[in-house]
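worker-3 :: picked DUF3995 domain-containing protein
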Amino acid sequence: MENAFTLIIGIILLSLGFLHMYWGFFGIKHPEKVLPRPKDQEQVALPGKTATFLVGSVLLLFALLFIAKLFNLIVADWLVYAHIFIGLLFLARAVGDFRHIGFFKTIKDTPFAKMDNRYYSPLCLLVAILIAISLQ
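worker-3 :: tokens ->
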């Protein structure tokens, strides 16, 4: 069962990494749904290509760490700590900054906030839980 969870985590992280790479190459079609913005601001400030590619690269690296675990490509003590760190990052993203992102955000009526409540924060929490289970 641990391998199934590790595979699911790897697939989710690969998908998110490739999505960010796609955004880096082709742009974001509806930025108001994927980027938080202050309530009084009309337009969403788009991150640069470098930042988007960096996030995509980090997500792909995270995916590779789980795939390496799945196929025993890397057998090292630090891999467990890397998985714990990644899980804590996703848990922190799910909890949020208490303003724009996460379950405890205060700005709740923007298009991003609605998508965050419905998809992004639950996915981050799911990834954190799956990582915790896979470490057992």
